[in-house]
UniProtKB/TrEMBL annotation:
Organism encoding this protein: Psophocarpus tetragonolobus (Winged bean)
Mode of membrane association: Single-pass membrane protein
UniProt-listed PANTHER family: NDR1_HIN1-LIKE PROTEIN 3, OS05G0367900 PROTEIN
Protein name: Late embryogenesis abundant protein LEA-2 subgroup domain-containing protein
InterPro entries named among the record's database cross-references: LEA_2, NDR1-like
Length: 223
């Protein structure tokens, strides 16, 4: 038969009873926060490493190559005609230029894939020429000889008309030549991607037959 266990009314001298265990369910999102922090830290370190490596490569490239700026000069300009008629707004012009292009670099060659030379009178373009593409070797000079000749419809505003009258009186004409380039640099077997810089030549050109003389003019790279 079933016997009821006796109740312990007095002091108990047996082994100690372990305390009841409590179980806690881990809160949601705690692990994600830790993982996300580690991930962001890893990404930051990776980006920082890439930036340092790129900086070292650029510095070593500059240290080895020491690239120098290509120099453009207009060495000669001949203006045989620059007549503007108010009635039909036509400009008759004849302008020939010699432009020297100097590559001072010892290790860099340059591919001039496309050259567009625009002639402007006080921001009014009256002609464009396209010299032949060419490759320029190390420490060499090439010549461009664009000739702007013909007639074109060129409506001038009041300010431009006033400037033209001044130039007609002095025999010196303010003509700007802007060159739009597509070029690539060559270092050994490596070639850069196509770059599209601009070069501006601000000229003061005497009309042929006057006493004024043209002075060699340095061109500037547009930023």
């Amino acid at each position: 038969m079933y016997q009821k266990e006796p109740q312990l009314n007095g002091g108990y001298y047996g082994p100690s009873i372990p305390p009841a265990k409590s179980y806690h369910r881990p809160g949601r999102g705690g692990g994600c926060g830790c993982c996300c922090g580690c991930l962001f830290s890893l990404i930051f370190k990776l980006i920082l490493t890439i930036i340092i490596i790129v900086g070292i490569v650029v510095f070593l490239f500059w240290l080895i190559v020491r690239p120098k700026v290509v120099k453009f000069h207009v060495t000669e300009a001949t203006l045989r005609q620059f007549n503007y008629t108010d009635n039909d707004k036509n400009l008759h012009y004849d302008l020939a230029l010699n432009i020297s292009v100097r590559n001072p670099n010892k290790r860099l060659g340059i591919y001039y894939d496309r050259i567009e030379a625009r002639a402007l009178f006080h921001d009014a373009r009256f002609d464009s020429q396209f010299p032949e593409p060419f490759y320029q070797g190390h420490k060499s000079t090439n010549l461009l000889n664009p000739v702007f000749k013909g007639q074109t419809l060129l409506p001038l505003n009041a300010d431009q008309t006033a400037e033209l009258k001044k130039d007609n009186s002095s025999g010196l004409y303010q003509i700007d030549v802007k060159m739009y380039l597509r070029l690539r640099f060559k270092l050994g077997a490596f070639k850069t991607k196509t770059l599209k810089p601009k070069v501006s030549c601000d000229l003061l050109v005497p009309l042929q037959g006057t006493a004024a003389v043209f002075h060699i003019t340095k061109c500037d790279w547009d930023r």
